[in-house]
Each structure stands twice: as structure tokens, then as C-alpha cells.
Amino acid sequence: MKTQLRILAKEASEKAYSPYSKVKVGSALVTTKGDYYSGCNVENASYGGTVCAERVAIFKAVSENEIKIKKLYVYSKDGWPPCGFCRQVIAEFAEKDLTIIIGDQEGNEKEIQFDKLMPYQFSASHLNK
Prior knowledge:
By secondary structure, the protein is α+β, with helices and mostly antiparallel strands. The chain has helices spanning 2-13, 53-63, 84-93, 114-117; strands at 25-31, 36-40, 69-76, 94-103, 109-113. The model has no long low-confidence stretch (mean pLDDT 95).
């Protein structure tokens, strides 16, 4: 599974639209149903309109009625972790034991449980009081 996620994330990174940062990021995830989705970063001149690779992959999964992420891989040349916006979106759709894998072009990988990456998550439970 990890190898498949890396392959998909790396392939997605090659499709990135990143004329401003010049950083190509790809992400791939597997859902609890066992389906795979990938995405790349898509930048915008306004910067605020930019969408990160992780969110693209998640939005693709959600658009296909897949709302629980089992594992997520983020690939970039230097092994960048998910940004704050992405962490919040991940929190919305993460399985309780979600693992994030961060990989770089050298083949280095770091696996981290999402609750360690974002220990105090804002969630729907905060709104349902």
C-alpha cells in the first residue's frame, strides 16, 4: 500500500501547476473502502486561490462519496509536510488512526500518526453542542 501511494503521489506531482512557488507536490490517499485517489497542487496568481495537493486528493475522494481516509502520502522534492489548511481538511475526513507519510525525491519517508501531527483538532464535535 505504501509503495502504491508513493507511486501515485509522485506521478501526481509531475502534473502540478506551480509557476509561482516552482514546487511540485503530489498526494495520494487510500480510503477505508480501499480506493485510491491522488492530486497535485494547483497554484493561482492570487495565492488565496491556490489548492494544495492533499486537498485536491481529498476533494476528489469526497466527490466520489468516499469520506474516510485510511492513509495519506505527501510527496515533494524536499519532503514538505501538509500545511495548516490541509491539516484542517484532513481532520474532517481522517479515520481515527490515520497515518500520514511524507516522502522526498531521495526516497526518504517519515510516517506519523495524524493525531501527533495535529493533536488539538477543531472538528464538528465543537459545533454540535
